[in-house]
Amino acid sequence: MQHHISLIGVPTDIGAGARGASMGPEALRVAGIRSVLESHGLDVLDRGNLSGPPNPWLAPAEGYRHLAEVVEWNQTLHEAVRAELAQARMPIVLGGDHCLGLGSISAVARHCRETGKKLRVLWLDAHADFNTAALTPSGNIHGMPVALLCGHGPAPLTGIGGTTPAIDAGVVRQIGIRSVDAGEKRLVHEAGLEVFDMRYIDEMGMRHTMEQALMGMDHNTHLHVSFDVDFLDPEIAPGVGTTVPGGPTYREAQLCMEMIADTGRLASLDVMELNPALDVRNRTAELAVDLIESLFGKSTLMRKTAPRA
């Protein structure tokens, strides 16, 4: 795992249906993300916040809200993530809404193509984010980034990074999904996306889920985690704009993060959709930082070896 980390704040809710995710980066800083990571012996640089257009809060135009502004924010993020990877640093993107996964993951995919690495994306989310303008009347692009990364959508968005599609659907593993529109579900199946929804987790358990999601990785795999805070059950993480009941518990989420850490392959991370305006005393940000710490070595494991029976 990379020991040189760069925090990149992206203070925008340009792709969302509710205001407030623009304050997410500061809430994560207030919750101590830098000092927590440094306590594990990591070299952490906070690059501050990227700049981009303000949110005009307009109705959709031709099926997309704020298309030009979303393109600009994601292009800026794409270049910032590429720059960190080129310096052999691990970018941690502090969102911001999840439309930003487009800029972040397209940059990671580009880096993998240029360096001959295999890519694996873990998409931790309540939503599949595989909508298109034809499927959603809202036009909110934070419900579309996975579809856009897989080439479904307008060229200004699908072409960020210079290659369309930016990724093959086969590199993605979605975990915690529990809210998918009917048309979106059809598109997900057609694309061949691998989805471990909450029913799967309920039936098989988080350990088996993560074993399946992480299967097939090797020393040449770049593991990217895109963590939408609404992945978590809203009982423990109320500070998001799109709460969906029935998400992973605290312990399930911890196990998920610890098993990712065990691979030693984590190379880039998004933390998205934290909305302090809807939070209670920064509780959700503190929980997010707690879980991020588990990605970097904090463990509940007291035994010398984990049981494998």
TrEMBL record:
The keyword Protease does not apply. Binds 2 manganese ions per subunit. It catalyses: L-arginine + H2O = urea + L-ornithine. InterPro entries: Arginase, Ureohydrolase, Ureohydrolase_dom_sf, Ureohydrolase_Mn_BS. Pathway: Nitrogen metabolism; urea cycle; L-ornithine and urea from L-arginine: step 1/1. Its cofactor is Mn(2+). Its EC number is 3.5.3.1. Keywords: Arginine metabolism, Hydrolase, Manganese, Metal-binding. One of its GO terms (molecular function) is manganese ion binding. Transmembrane segments: none annotated. The keyword Metal-binding applies. Mn(2+) binds at residues 98, 125, 127, 129, 228, 230. GO terms for biological process: arginine metabolic process. GO terms for cellular component: cytoplasm. Belongs to the arginase family. NCBIfam families: rocF_arginase. This is Arginase.
